[in-house]
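Subject: complex prediction, re-run

Hi both,

The earlier run crashed halfway through, so I resubmitted it with identical inputs.
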Amino acid sequence: MSKPGTDTRHDVEGLQDLFAGRIVTNKSKLLHFTTDESFHEGPLPDALFQPRSTAEVVEIVKVCEAEKIPLIPYGAGTSLEGHTLASHGGIILDMTGLSEIIEVNAEDQDCRCQPGVTRERLNSYLRDTGLCFPIDPGADATIGGMVATSASGTNAVRYGTMKENVLALEAVLADGSVIRTGRRARKTAAGLDLTHLLIGSEGTLGVVTEVTLRLHGIPECTKALSCSFASTAQAIDAVIVIIQLAIPVAKIEFLDEKQVNACNQYCGVKEVEEPTLLIEFHGNETETHDQISRTTEIVEELGGRNFRWAESQQERNELWRYRYNALPAAKGLRPGCEVLITDVCVPISRLCECIVKCQKQIEAHDMLAPIVGHVGDGNFHAFIVVDTKDKKEMKKTGEVAEWMTSLAIEMNGTATGEHGIGIGKQEALIHEFGISTVKAMCRIKAAMDPHDILNPGKIYSPEIMSAYRG
Amino acid sequence: MSKPGTDTRHDVEGLQDLFAGRIVTNKSKLLHFTTDESFHEGPLPDALFQPRSTAEVVEIVKVCEAEKIPLIPYGAGTSLEGHTLASHGGIILDMTGLSEIIEVNAEDQDCRCQPGVTRERLNSYLRDTGLCFPIDPGADATIGGMVATSASGTNAVRYGTMKENVLALEAVLADGSVIRTGRRARKTAAGLDLTHLLIGSEGTLGVVTEVTLRLHGIPECTKALSCSFASTAQAIDAVIVIIQLAIPVAKIEFLDEKQVNACNQYCGVKEVEEPTLLIEFHGNETETHDQISRTTEIVEELGGRNFRWAESQQERNELWRYRYNALPAAKGLRPGCEVLITDVCVPISRLCECIVKCQKQIEAHDMLAPIVGHVGDGNFHAFIVVDTKDKKEMKKTGEVAEWMTSLAIEMNGTATGEHGIGIGKQEALIHEFGISTVKAMCRIKAAMDPHDILNPGKIYSPEIMSAYRG
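This time it finished cleanly. Structure:
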């Protein structure tokens, strides 16, 4: 966020002629963009513009580069670290107008689409081909937004993150040039890997205008299991063994007893309030049967109990509704409050210790913070429920969140497994990588966007950026 | 390669004091570095230096940056596109002195090692832990070299390439700063993805001094199958179905009839000289049994015949010896000649058409060029056997190789699936990506290495680099 009193205004009226009056400056419409799904807040943007083609993206980028007006690419607005706020003013570039699914190559299991396509619409469109795009961050995010934040979620343990599932990108750079970072081959060793450089770059290096995605077959057979344990240690031990034996589970999610309690209240059910794993199996009949028998043996041996199986689509929907409502369920524990979501990810050998230490810290500070995790990857979230109007509580919450981040980094983990840096984790970035590495990032940013017009103020603070741009 | 007559000499004598006389300038020792495993040749380097620590790498980088002396990181010298030649003179930085395996985290299935460790030594070291590093480019390359070229090879169809198996890197940048691009978490969304930016950057952005690798369990059960087909089309159709059904085969390699003939001569065996697939299965008993029964059904239905199974280690070694000797077998067809190796990779729906068109082109030009392929990824190599002393033949060979590359790019594929650009495919890079994208690469290179001391002349020609460095 810009400092109080910083002037973030830019004159955008000159752009109206170029885009036939489509530059929206109506204050009531712009207010929507001063908050996001998290508790972050930003200044009022100068304008909103929805491009209809890559050519229009080029045009607006060129004029903004010339006039030094910030551009903030915007998808479904579901990011959690203030990525889409107009920290330095400028124009919100609403990419949802670019929402064409351009081609599906079923034989090669890939597709090309525009960034404004949401993952649920893509999957509906794909259904008849027998293929799917399994990356599932929970929210119905746009594909462009998922590229920007390197999204992952529940299915990453089997299918990987966006990093493993984007074959190529088209993007408009700050100078208005259009780059294509790859083609449709399944692998390449040609030149610098700009595809991965753009994934997770949070709109700071280029505006993504087309995405080539890797697709997967819809599994012949899907089954899901819920079971509980007497302790977090038992549950996580089971996860570690399952991962070590390379059982290709599609999802393996953890809910601590506080989260089970919250979900019980929210969903009106009465699951046993113990640390719980929800596991999903994908494959053909033989494969799922083998995965299930091996997993069940491990889970039983480690004290898993209260098994509940979900086979039909309806049963599975019910089981996963429980998990997917974890965030509103946490919020529901204390109406009128917001949730600060942590996102650490650690080597799985340290996962149990990390979760337990976080739970103790939460308790010691008398906070309300249920925990859920994509534990197959070592990634978990504490949903810290906080009264954002209570300054003292906000301060304490920030401190505990920072403490958790430091703990994860100390354990050789990362501050953010899947949400990104945005404006919320800029200090953590430096802590995690050290200043030399962040300096290298700033130099690349400066080389690709010398006037800092592409989502400025994200990933790096203005102070860091100006000190290290080289 | 530098232009004839270009002066590539640098004064390196001043460095002797700093490194206690360890800068090797003995011409007979330097001659070794004027050629590589391919037919590429380069000028004599100015010197050879083997650093013993990251600190020594920092020291030599700093002095070379100050004196503008090129540095060429060197591993096992097994690259195929002239990556390790001293195109602009300078110092060969022999990284094999940094060959420590620092730690193996068996529970997390990862390890940290120095870049000079070779993959075979790493796998010997890992054996007792039940883990392995499966990326196998054929040659016993160093891990650092494999990072530099984004190596892959036979197992990539199941385990991915270096891009999917490097968790983090430590590297020394041109300014002497040491960066760490990640930690040991299985995923991260923190900041720019410098790990992937360095993988495949061919030593042009930084000198890799430490690698954190993802490991995999040694499969409980391994079986391999060889079978032949009446036509290339039948063999590739079988591959396409196997990949579409997501049968997790560990290897699926193709040899055309010419290559089978060459291997028969070289290995002194008499396999049927038809297009052949070699397939390997990894898993537990149930998994491999399921994979084998599904694969066999597909292969039989598509006309596969002459099945030969390999179960014991010895049988498998024998089966794979056939494939791993493909290159010397091709060379053996015409003693005294060299081999120009193409490396295209296309979407698998276009693979058969691509291979058949290449075979026809080879035939039309009366050339000797057996074909082998990592066909599960759509990647194949034509081993064009050529008399490098015959200028006319060399010219024709170059033209046919370029024709193949253009064909692959036209089919939405890449000029290089796994060998990289080096000095051999610089024109193809521009053809594949277009000038805007290559310009963006040059800008990043210039931002990270402003005096172009890190492996200059690779990936981009000096002309392209000076035109587009920004």
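Chain B has four domains: 13-96, 98-217, 219-333, 434-468.

- K.
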